[in-house]
Design brief:
This protein is α/β, with parallel strands linked by helices and 310 residues long. Helices cover 48% and strands 17% of the residues. It has helices at residues 4-42, 61-76, 99-108, 119-131, 172-182, 208-221, 229-238, 256-264, 267-276, 278-285, 287-295; strands at residues 89-93, 111-116, 140-144, 157-163, 183-196, 242-248, 299-307. The chain has a 7-stranded mixed sheet with strand order 3-2-1-4-5-7-6, with helices on both faces. Helix 1 runs antiparallel to helix 9 (267-276), helix 6 packs antiparallel against helix 11 (287-295) and helix 8 (256-264) packs antiparallel against helix 11 (287-295). Keywords: Methyltransferase, S-adenosyl-L-methionine, Transferase.
């Protein structure tokens, strides 16, 4: 006999699973529609650039800034150019069209696997890997998979790389658990992600206006509830991971969103946006909110790195 409490619990679980499935479908469709637009305008790196806050930024600097983001993330995590310490197996969690994967594979001569919810992204990433001669060497490939249920055995990768995908994860604890699970003993985990500001000692939640701002961004970019950098650090600590470090790079990425907005209002950007569909257009319309979030200190661009015990 099923009790009222059991029925209520089942209904709650069903509702949670439905929301998770709807979120995944929304993320996949958003990137199915918008990835071609991004590649047309910005190329194959679907992430922020890393800038010198004291320098004037020109239009030609943005692709170089995206490469600097990769290099600075590696440097922050303590990955050097010493061949003996370089990763030989890499997973790119939330790989986009594979820009980071291919860059890292070439840099380290490493085997790299990329996963994404978007079939369009996975297909395009494999095409680009083949075009660049990386797929023929059988060490760079991409597939559709859930970051919360990665299709890899335990302890497979020397470097677990997540560049701006964590913000899409509805269960941050499960996300971090999976990153740690697939990391090899002694392996490095790098998480670069959007967070909300850390709460003060007397705060229990964000201010209502802050939550309203973030919710508008969530609705356009298919994001679940945000978390803080300190939330990530606590999750990593709970797994007994070592050498945990975190930093706020918000100032270093400040020129990025204004540049994205400017690119959308070029003739090429405008035509590409119209061709991309309603989800991409909806995303473009809330881009000024990202700038507002950074300027008001609500949004933080965070890097968190750690190492799995040997």
């Amino acid at each position: 006999m099923t009790t009222h409490g059991e029925t209520a619990a089942t209904s709650t679980l069903d509702a949670h699973m439905h929301r998770a499935c709807s979120l995944q479908e929304g993320i996949a469709e958003f990137y199915d529609q918008s990835s071609g637009l991004w590649e047309d305008i910005w190329g194959d790196h679907m992430h922020h650039g890393f800038y010198d806050p004291d320098s004037n930024v020109s239009g030609s600097d943005h692709p170089a800034a995206q490469i600097r983001m990769i290099e600075e993330s590696l440097r922050f995590a303590g990955i050097t150019d010493d061949p003996a310490k370089q990763p030989k197996t890499i997973v790119d969690v939330g790989c986009g069209i594979g820009g980071s994967s291919r860059y890292l594979a070439r840099k380290f001569g490493a085997e790299c696997r990329g996963i994404t919810l978007s079939p369009v992204q996975a297909g395009r990433a494999n095409v680009l890997a083949k075009y660049e001669g990386l797929a023929d060497k059988a060490y760079v490939s991409f597939q559709v998979a859930d970051a919360l249920k990665q299709p890899f055995p335990d302890g497979q990768f020397d470097l677990v790389w997540s560049m701006e995908s964590g913000e899409h994860m509805p269960d941050k604890a499960k996300f971090v658990n999976e990153l740690a699970r697939v990391a090899a003993p002694g392996g490095t985990i790098i998480i670069v992600t959007w967070c909300h500001r850390d709460l003060g000692p007397s705060e229990e939640d964000l201010e209502p206006w802050e939550k309203k701002l973030l919710n508008r961004i969530c609705n356009a970019y298919y994001l679940p509830e945000w978390c803080s950098t300190s939330d990530y650090v606590k999750l990593l600590q709970s797994l007994s991971l070592q050498d945990i470090k975190a930093a706020d790079w918000s100032e270093r990425v400040a020129p990025f969103w204004p540049a994205v907005i400017c690119s959308a209002f070029t003739w090429k950007g405008f035509i590409s946006l119209l061709r991309s569909g309603l989800k991409a257009i909806k995303g473009a319309l809330v881009m000024p909110l990202m700038i507002q979030g950074y300027q008001k200190g609500v949004i933080k661009f965070a890097i968190i790195t750690c190492r799995k015990p040997e």
